[in-house]
Design a protein that fits this description.
The protein is mainly alpha-helical and 77 residues long. It has one domain. Helix 2 packs antiparallel against helix 3. The longest helix is centred in the last third of the chain and has 29 residues. It is elongated and about 50 Å long.
Amino acid sequence: MFPEYRDLITRLKREGANTRFLNLFERHNELDHQVKALENRDVGSIHAEIDMLKKEKLRVKDELYAILRQEAAAGSK
């Protein structure tokens, strides 16, 4: 996820100062695991749940990206 921000992600995780970023990063990982677990099941009735989780995951990813852009801009000043 966001290879262009790999170093920044590592720094933000290591420093731990941006708790919003850390919480979103953890939530994204949780959602990713949930989606993968559901996709591995062969039950047609879970498609709606998978779609809901994917939408939440995308929302979280968008927030993470916004934070990364903001942090990158602040670091280049």
